[in-house]
Structures are given as structure tokens and as C-alpha cells.
Amino acid sequence: MTAPVPPRAADTPPPAGEDRGEGRPPAADEGATLMVAFQKGDRAAFDRLVALFRADVMSLGYRFGLDAERSEDLAQETFVRVYRARTDYRPTARFRSWLLRIATNLVVSEARTRRRSRTFSLDRGAGGEGDEGPAAAIVDGRTEAPIQGLERAELRSAVEAALSELPENQRVALLLNRFHEQSYDEVGAALGLTLEAVKSLLFRARQNLKERLKRYVTESPDEP
Amino acid sequence: MSTMDGSDPQRCDGAREDLVALLDGELAASAAAAVSAHVAGCAACRRELSRLRSVGELLATLPAAPPPRAGFDERLAARLAAVDAGAEPASPRPRAEPAPLARRPDPRTGGAPRAERGPAAHPGPGGARPAPRRAAAAALIVALVVGLAGVAYRLGFFGGDDGRPQVTRTQEEPGRRDAPPHVHKRPDHSTGGAELAMALTPAEERELAEALDVIEELELLEALDLVESFEAGDDAWLDDILLEEKG
Questions:
Q1: Each residue of A101-155: pLDDT tens digit?
Q2: What is the domain count for chain B?
Q3: Domains in chain A, ordered, with CATH?
Q4: B176 is a domain residue
Q5: Cβ separation B33–A172 shorter than 8 A
Q6: How far apart are the CA of B118 and the nearest CA of chain A, in angstroms?
Q7: A135/B47 Cβ within 8 A
Q8: How far apart are CA B69 and CA A130, in angstroms?
Q9: Can you tell me the distance from the alpha carbon of B101 to that of B99, in angstroms, rounded to the nearest whole number?
Q10: Does residue B3 lie within any of the structural domains?
């Protein structure tokens, strides 16, 4: 008899900060504190917000499939909107969730625009646009189990391609949950979906990826 | 009914939809305990859990965005200064609302969710819409209907004498206790569909999931104003197109 599986065993979303290229992420809700300070006229607090969350916002667009330059534009636009919204902000939700909702809207709008113009590139692979630069070559080494015998670049390209083939709502939900520590509730709030719908969406997303990445998917018959 | 490896197709079906939520730590304690207990006694679900966990590990290979180019802060500062000076082109109000893919309550559907549409998505004067869009929307809907009908047929929705859906879950049969897990019965049309199987092959499951995703894409198209009110009965324009095409 195998022991029951504890929730969040080895598949726990990466701890805060692992996905960012810039230091640790804000603790608790430092973002809300800073935003409130900014509302009261502390401009330095806004600059601090940008420094804390810039990489977070950029990575949402980048992993979604935008190139580096467009991801940066997305981050700029997100912070401009935050700046404009300073009088509207109410610290009733995590600041990061509020910020990511704005960024999610922009990412989805970008996908819509590019789909209309049929220029949305889904083939940003190794060596593609935006992949130059030292950080692009860094594949974070936080995989729970080392993946051996595979070329990292090939694997990364395969994962990027599989992700890009997901329907946009599955893709953005997966990214928000896996890389931006957004709970199902928070993903639902960002996408206007119920908790059950988010659960179904993320189930289908991972099922789809499992099929598309079957060559790389491993299984352990003794999985606890 | 359990098989030799402890799997029970009906329980597995229920548990598998929860496996991802279990991995994500999003199940309530009681549900997590129930799913964990099932997984502990079901080799097939343990393997599935392992595969899903592996997918999570693969996702971890995705890189974060490269650092911004030099001058990011200066460019942002310039834009913010323009905002303060009123020189920044007016952008939409900041939205922390659901993304455009979101479903929202729509009074026309009695509160049923409906894809949001943006300001640019409204039809032209008089509700007229460009013919290419209408044709594209019509083609999409026809493809969707045909595709879903195909899936429904294969799943046995049209098997009954009375034309009503006849899908039922496979009944466990005496003498089949040794049946291997995941035996997929095909619909038996010789019985008029009275005993159709709901157990799907992986390919059928994928096909059904893809069909559902087509619906999500359709909602996206609606948000783009390529399709209007497919759920609200506002489809006279589509009827016209279909009649034209038939004629």
C-alpha cells in the first residue's frame, strides 16, 4: 500500500522569486504598502514597485510567447496604467494579483491584435528573436528532478512550442498559476472564470501539454 | 469495480480531474485526502499523477524574460512625465478586470456568461458587418457544428430510437471482473444505442477536449466581433449566409 499523496508534493509551484531575474520578489504584500505610499505622494515608492515587479510582468509576456522587446513594452505599458490608476487602487486584493490582471489584459490584447494581423510568432525558439543575451541562455535549474540525457535547448524549444499551441486562456492561466504564484481564485479573478472553470482549464492545459510533450514526459510506477 | 491494479474506471475518471488540482495544492483537505487515498490504491492513477508531475517539471525549463534593455527606467520615466503633462496619448483606463477572454454576465442571456467585447468590437452602423467577417464566422460555425456533431455521433449521442442522447456510463457486467483497466467499449448500434459506452479512448478524450477548446476560441472570436451572439439567438444574419451558400 502506498502512502497517500500529500498535496503540493514535488509539484509545488516554484517558491516566490525563482522565476525572476532580479532578486527576491516582494514579501507578503509589500506591493500594496508601496502602492498606498505612492497614492499618498511618495514617488519613490512607485519606482520601488517598478523595480520589484518589472521582471515579473516581463516574464508573463515572454513566456506567453512575446519576444523580449515586446515583453518589455508590455511591462512599460503595465506600469503606465498602474501610474494612471493610482487614485483608483484599493488594497482589497494582493497588489501582485491586481498588477498581473492588468498585465494579463495587455498580453491577451496583444495576442488578439497579432492574431488579427497574423503576425503572432509562435516559433520563438532557441536562437530566435529575443533569445540573445546572457539571461536567455539561463535555464533555471530548479527542476524538481534533473532531466538527464536531453539537450536543454531542444527541451526548452519543445516546451515553448507545446505551450504556444495551447489555447490562449489555458496558456495564460497556466502561466499565472505556475510562475506567478496565483491561486486558482486569483487566476479566476484575472480571467473572469469560476473556480471550477479554472480547475477544468488547468487540467486540460496540463493534459494537452502531456500529449504534446509525451516524448519527454516520464513516469514512475512507484509514484507515491 | 476494481481491476487487478486497483483501478476503478469510474472512480479514476473522477479522481483524474482532481490530480492537477492536487498537485497544485488547490483541493480542500477532505477532497485531497480522498483523491490521495484513491491514488494510493490505484496504480493507473499513480502513473497518471507521475506523468502530470513530469509535465510540471518540464514547464520549469521555461526561462524567465531576459533583463530589460538599458534605459528601461529612463524610458518609463519619460512616459510618466508625459502622463503628468497630459502629453501621453490617452490609453484605455487601467483595467484590473478580467481579461478579454473572460466570460461576463450578459443580461441578454439571463445572466449567462458571455465574452466581453472591446470598444472597437462593435458592429458598424446599422449593425452591418463586413462580408468577409460574416463569411469567416459562418464557416467557423459550420465547421464547429459539423465537428461537434461528429464527436457526438462517435460518442453515441445519436444512437437512440427516439433521437435523444443515449450516452450512459458503461455498466459493470458480471463476469468481467478480470477485464483489464480502460477497456473502451464502442457504442453498440445494433441495440439501438441502448447500451452505449461513455468510456473514451484517449484519442476521443483529446478530440472532445479540442472541441471544447474550439468553443473557447469561438468565444474569443466573439470578443473580436467576428461572431455575434452565437448564444443569444441573434443569428438571422447567419441564416442569410447559410441560405445564400445553399442557393
A1: 999 999 988 888 877 665 444 445 433 443 433 333 334 444 445 555 557 888 9
A2: 2
A3: 30-130+149-212 (1.10.1740.10)
A4: yes
A5: no
A6: 10
A7: no
A8: 11
A9: 5
A10: no
